[in-house]
Amino acid sequence: MWKKIMLILLAVLAFAAVYPICFLLAGSLMGTGELQENLSAAQEGGAGYVRMPGLPQYPTLQSYVELLLDSPEFFVMFWNSVKLTAGILLGQLLFGVPAAWGFAKGSFPFRKLLFTIYILLMMMPFQVLMLSDYLLLDTMRLLDTHAGLVLLSVFSTFPVFLMYRFFDSVPDALVEAARLDGASQWQVFLYVGLPLGSPGIISTMVLGFLEYWNLMEPPMTFLKSKQLWPLALYLPNISLEEAGAAFAASVMALIPAILVFLAGQDYLEKGIVAAAVKE
Q1: Quick check: helix, strand or coil at residue 178?
Q2: How far apart are CA 107 and CA 130, in angstroms?
Q3: What is the pTM of this model?
Q4: How far is it, in rounded angstroms, from Cα 101 to Cα 154?
Q5: Which end of the chain is more exposed for a tag (fewer CB within 10 A), N or C?
Q6: What are the Cα distances from residue 187, in Å, to 140, 165, 175, 178?
Q7: Quick one: DSSP state of residue 216?
Q8: Average of per-residue pLDDT values in the chain
Q9: How far apart are CA 131 and CA 137, in angstroms?
């Protein structure tokens, strides 16, 4: 009895999670007239409620054609998102991974104190550090540049915290055995830490992609030129009259995130297990 109730509850929750995506796909395949009819309540002075059927009455690819062929601005912002996301993740691999290993297995004075400070910085929201970040980028003349956004996110504390949990689960006996065999600190990191911590690293990169692909607040704050905006800032600037293009653009922005998640899903699950079970 309870098993059936749980299955029904999970089915309802799954439907609630999937429905917005179905809503998005259906809207992207509707014509202008059908969209205006369904979304008329959302317009100024409209009455009633927005309604969206599960399937369009007259499916059309008009919105995708207009977006992909008549909207060069979309491709500029799409490429901006690719550059920002790739730059940030590459920087976190170069700097965040060694930092996480150092906090987990390094031996230096005030290690725990420094990591505690690191955690406190992670807990501060973007709004708290916004002014100091703005002044820093202004001093370095990196305002209104992609390099400034990449610089701020490369040294984010959250990826280091996540990877620290995975590196901390590496058995100390294995690390000590490698050192007794004459391995240097870097050799232990390269041949012991990286292979055993790879699920955590990949998991962090997958989560990082999902975060930075949809980055909104930092670009809105530090980028003044519209041609530098990422794709996440393209969608809110589409008027209601262009609802079809908005639906199509949302679907196109969603596809890379889904592909990355599916590609890294196994590593994400292994990473969660590795973080939960510590030897």
Answers
A1: helix
A2: 33
A3: 0.84
A4: 16
A5: N
A6: 35, 20, 10, 9
A7: -
A8: 83
A9: 10
Q: What is the CA radius of gyration of the chain?
A: 23
Determine the Cα–Cα distance for residues 220 and 164; give it in Å rounded to an integer: 31
CA-based nearest residue to 163, from 205, 211, 128: 205
What are the b/e assignments for 46-55, b being 16+ CB within 10 Å?
Answer: eeeeeebeee
What CA–CA distance (Å, rounded) separates 23 from 104? 44
Encoding tokens for residue 206?
């997958």
Report how far residue 201's alpha carbon sits from residue 268's, in angstroms, rounded to the nearest whole number.
Answer: 9
Distances (CA, A) of 79 to 175, 232, 235, 238, 243: 42, 12, 15, 18, 22
| Domains defined for the chain, CATH in brackets | 2-60 (no CATH), 73-239+253-276 (1.10.3720.10)
- CA 65/CA 71 separation, integer angstroms: 9
Rounded to whole angstroms, the Cα distance separating 268 from 262 reads: 10
Query: Do 137 and 143 form a contact (C-beta atoms < 8 A)?
Result: yes
| Segment 111-130, tens digit of pLDDT | 888 888 888 887 888 888 88
